[in-house]
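Sequence of Energy transducer TonB (Spirosoma soli).
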Amino acid sequence: MQQAVKAFARFIPKSPKCFPEANHPPESDALSLDAAGDVSLASKINDEKPQSSPRKRYVSFINLIIYKRMKAYIILLLVGLWLPTQAQTDAKPASERLVFTVVEQRPEFPGGMEKLAQYLDQNLRYPEAARNAKRKGRVFVTFIITDEGAIQDAHVLKSIDPELDAEAVRLVSSMPNWIPGKQAGRPVNVRFNLPIHFKL
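Predicted 3D structure, token representation.
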């Protein structure tokens, strides 16, 4: 075998001049002689870095846009799920939320207790039937002053007469917003009791 290889090697010229294209090998596959003398197929190795085609760049750009839009959609979806839950929480009446009876800063009627007394005197409507029956006394009304100062859940705590009770609840419910009470520096819901005097 070695003698055959040596005999074949004699016919291979040693000078590259016999191959005009030796210094510029074609881009197609070429024949080469390995160390054992066998002829093998050698592929050309391209040392240049591969460049991305315009199609690949376009696809990458489209994928980036899709990713950003999907991210925005997910954020909007999460916000959309959170807002109704928050709205339901805020929509609950104060009686179903945390209500304080004692706070660091008590709620206050605009202008103070003197203005509250003026409001009660000016807006009290003595029921005619109760007046004729000479019914009088004090009706205690309990209500909640919300963290926004609104009046909610007004009802009679101590009753003396159905007509007087109804007028006391109406009077309290129609009050303007109070200055809300505060606990730890934050407005909170506070339950408040108020006597309404009916005098003849």
